[in-house]
Structure formats: structure tokens, C-alpha cells
Amino acid sequence: PSGAGGSAMASSSGTDVIQVTNVSPSASSEQMRTLFGFLGKIEELRLFPPDDSPLPVSSRVCFVKFHDPDSAVVAQHLTNTVFVDRALIVVPYAEDD
């Protein structure tokens, strides 16, 4: 077999940013930072709409930029984790466009 080792999959996404959808409206950016902070150092975290948004929100989207791309790979395993009252969906987010 011509396997290139276990690192081939990790580097294929090549991004240190994840997009988290189906985030509960009652989740705060601080809670998201705590949850994903277990996986590695967070460079930046953005939650849309923001915590102080006056608009009624049915679901939020969170973007997390990690210091290490490996953390973004690991974070994808949190897909289907129930956080507050719904299952999170975590996908890699390519930021170069």
C-alpha cells in the first residue's frame, strides 16, 4: 500500500479556520471560546449574529480561527456534539477567497 502516513488527511484541509453552524441562540461567544479552547489556542472567534444583536435569532454561526491547523482538524470531530440545546455542525472553512 502506498500510504503516506497519518498526516496526509490532516493537511488536506489546510486551514486553521472552522465554521460552526446550528449554534443555539442562547450560546454566547464566551461559551464557544471555552468549548473550542480545549482543543488548542484560539487566534480569533466570531459569532454571528453577535451576543448583543437586537435581532431575533433562530440559529447562530460561529467562526473559530486556531493558532494550529491541527486543532481545526480535531475540532471537526465535535460535529453532532449537543451544545446547549442542539447538535453542532463543524466544517473546515477556507479563508483564502
Quickly list its features.
97 residues, alpha+beta, four-stranded antiparallel sheet, 3 helices, 30% strand, Nucleotide-bd_a/b_plait_sf, RRM_dom
The total count of strands amounts to 6
Low-confidence runs (pLDDT<50, min 5 residues)?
2-12
Taken in chain order, the helices and strands follow as: HEHEEHEEE
Apparent shape: globular
Strand percentage:
25-35%
Gyration radius over CA: 14 Å
User: What profile does the largest beta sheet have?
Assistant: 4 strands, antiparallel
Portion of residues in helices?
10-25%
Structural class: alpha+beta
Strand order of the largest sheet: 2-3-1-6
Can you walk through the features of this model?
This is RRM domain-containing protein. GO terms for molecular function: RNA binding. The chain has 97 residues and is α+β, with helices and mostly antiparallel strands. The protein is built from 3 helices and 6 strands. It has helices at 7-13, 29-37, 69-75; strands at residues 17-23, 42-48, 60-66, 82-83, 86-87, 89-92. The chain starts with 6 loop residues before the first helix and ends in a 5-residue tail after the last strand.
Please give the structural blueprint:
Blueprint: H1 7-13, E1 17-23, H2 29-37, E2 42-48, E3 60-66, H3 69-75, E4 82-83, E5 86-87, E6 89-92
Antiparallel strand pairs: 1-3, 1-6, 2-3, 4-5
What can be said about this structure in brief?
With 97 residues, this protein is α+β, with helices and mostly antiparallel strands. 24% of the residues lie in helices and 30% in strands.
